[in-house]
Design a protein that fits this description.
By secondary structure, the protein is mainly α. The protein has one domain. Helices cover about 65% and strands about 0% of the residues. The protein has helices spanning about 5-20, 25-35, 40-60. Helix 2 crosses helix 3. The protein is globular and about 35 Å long. About 15% of the residues are buried.
Length: about 70
Protein backbone atom coordinates (compact mmCIF):
# COMPACT_ATOMS: atom_id res chain seq x y z
CA UNK A 1 0.00 0.00 0.00
CA UNK A 2 1.42 3.35 -1.00
CA UNK A 3 1.62 6.08 1.63
CA UNK A 4 0.19 9.43 0.55
CA UNK A 5 2.90 12.07 0.58
CA UNK A 6 0.76 15.18 0.84
CA UNK A 7 2.48 18.24 2.24
CA UNK A 8 0.17 18.58 5.24
CA UNK A 9 0.51 14.88 6.08
CA UNK A 10 4.31 15.23 5.87
CA UNK A 11 4.14 18.32 8.05
CA UNK A 12 2.05 16.42 10.60
CA UNK A 13 4.50 13.50 10.53
CA UNK A 14 7.46 15.79 11.14
CA UNK A 15 5.61 17.60 13.92
CA UNK A 16 4.66 14.32 15.62
CA UNK A 17 8.23 13.00 15.34
CA UNK A 18 9.48 16.06 17.21
CA UNK A 19 6.59 16.26 19.70
CA UNK A 20 5.74 12.64 20.37
CA UNK A 21 6.10 12.90 24.14
CA UNK A 22 3.94 15.99 24.48
CA UNK A 23 1.34 15.30 21.78
CA UNK A 24 -2.20 15.29 23.20
CA UNK A 25 -3.99 11.95 23.17
CA UNK A 26 -5.83 10.54 21.27
CA UNK A 27 -3.28 11.24 18.55
CA UNK A 28 -5.32 10.74 15.35
CA UNK A 29 -8.11 13.19 16.27
CA UNK A 30 -5.48 15.73 17.35
CA UNK A 31 -3.58 15.46 14.06
CA UNK A 32 -6.84 15.74 12.13
CA UNK A 33 -7.88 18.86 13.99
CA UNK A 34 -4.53 20.67 13.97
CA UNK A 35 -3.43 19.79 10.42
CA UNK A 36 -6.89 19.52 8.79
CA UNK A 37 -6.33 15.90 7.74
CA UNK A 38 -8.74 13.18 6.71
CA UNK A 39 -8.75 10.03 8.85
CA UNK A 40 -6.63 8.23 6.23
CA UNK A 41 -4.15 11.12 6.02
CA UNK A 42 -3.81 11.26 9.81
CA UNK A 43 -3.09 7.53 9.94
CA UNK A 44 -0.58 7.88 7.09
CA UNK A 45 1.13 10.77 8.91
CA UNK A 46 1.43 8.70 12.08
CA UNK A 47 2.82 5.79 10.07
CA UNK A 48 5.38 8.03 8.35
CA UNK A 49 6.46 9.40 11.72
CA UNK A 50 6.84 5.90 13.16
CA UNK A 51 8.83 4.76 10.12
CA UNK A 52 11.13 7.78 10.42
CA UNK A 53 11.72 7.06 14.10
CA UNK A 54 12.32 3.36 13.42
CA UNK A 55 14.74 4.21 10.62
CA UNK A 56 16.66 6.57 12.92
CA UNK A 57 17.01 3.82 15.54
CA UNK A 58 18.04 1.26 12.92
CA UNK A 59 20.71 3.50 11.42
CA UNK A 60 22.14 4.26 14.85
CA UNK A 61 22.28 0.65 16.03
CA UNK A 62 22.60 -1.52 12.94
CA UNK A 63 23.99 0.55 10.09
CA UNK A 64 20.78 1.42 8.23
CA UNK A 65 20.64 0.62 4.53
CA UNK A 66 24.01 -1.12 4.61
CA UNK A 67 22.60 -3.89 6.81
CA UNK A 68 20.90 -5.56 3.83
CA UNK A 69 24.23 -5.83 2.01
CA UNK A 70 25.98 -7.81 4.75
Amino acid sequence: MAIPTLDHANEAALWFTENRGTCPRPIIPHLRRVFNLSPLEACAALRMANLRMAWAVTTETEGGADVAQR
